[in-house]
Amino acid sequence: WVRLSPSLPPNFCLLSQFTSVFIVAFIVAPPVDIDGIREPVSGSLLYGNNIISGAIIPTSAAIGLHFYPIWEATSVDEWLYNGGPYELIVLHFLLGVACYMGREWELSFRLVCVLGLLLHIQLLLQPGFLDLPSWSRKLLGWYTFRNITCVSISANWTIVFVTFGPTLMLVNF
Predict the structure, then answer these.
(1) pTM of the predicted model, to two decimals?
(2) Which chain regions cross the lipid bilayer (predicted)?
């Protein structure tokens, strides 16, 4: 059963922030000084672009590739002018993807018990397959094959992998 948690997972919160800031910036973001020569480039719909030519303008090369939060700027206008929304969108997207990957990693550890259960079932069934040489001796009487043990072990693992193979492939590590 799926248990609904009272709080939203962090990846949902981060990705919803990324999406909402992207939509707002795509519509109303002011022009950005993209190359540091004080010649701003506009990419939002409010400044004359359409859906095809609209873009979120990247962070200014003048401030370099470092973390540029809104509290580091002297004003919100400076943060917008230097491409703050672009960096906010990219970092929230990357954090959301990292949280999603962490959630998948956590789920893979929860599925280990399923793998353990399948392996225990296989261990319970294994003695019947390994007893193949004794019943073949009884069946054939005096004649025995030279490599019947090798054949029975390979047949055993073939049956196990054909039976549990698709189920084991669902567990990602």
Answers:
(1) 0.54
(2) 12-32, 44-67, 79-100, 107-125, 145-171
